[in-house]
Design goal:
With about 140 residues, the protein is mainly alpha-helical. The chain contains seven helices and no strands.
């Protein structure tokens, strides 16, 4: 198995790199994921205020508005936190906080939206890496 490289940065194209990459691969990945996450949230009218306030922020700021990071001021810890979020890997307690921050009215509404958000993260990663794998075979 060959590791993919970012064509813009010439770094290994890892999950960690996607969080910070300023090249077209990283930017396109984050923009598309942000758009789809906001679309998932927009299906819940109770989250409209959160979406209007935080939806126009950059991807990382939007994620941090839902899943705050306060345990450390270390940049490496923040980067790991964001990498986990890009994978949809947030804990139940983090999900409960995000649910409150989005203003969900019911437990069913928030559960459905947060599960959808997790799946979107995984789908975007699969789409990106599957496409890169196919292109490298050609």
């Amino acid at each position: 198995m060959e590791r993919q490289r970012c064509t813009n940065c010439d770094a290994h194209l890892t999950l960690e790199h996607l969080v910070v990459c300023r090249g077209p691969i990283g930017s396109s990945f984050r923009d598309g994921l942000q758009r789809d996450l906001l679309s998932a949230v927009s299906a819940s009218p109770s989250a409209d205020a959160w979406r209007r306030t935080h939806g126009q922020r950059g991807f990382r700021r939007m994620l941090l508005s839902l899943f705050p990071f306060t345990t450390s001021t270390c940049a490496a810890d923040l980067h790991r936190h964001l990498t986990r979020l890009v994978c949809g890997a947030f804990t139940q307690s983090q999900a409960a906080i995000a649910s409150k921050l989005m203003g969900f009215d019911s437990i069913d509404e928030d559960r459905h939206t947060l599960v959808r958000m997790r799946l979107l993260c995984l789908q975007h990663l699969d789409t990106l890496f599957s496409g890169l794998k196919k292109a490298s075979r050609s």
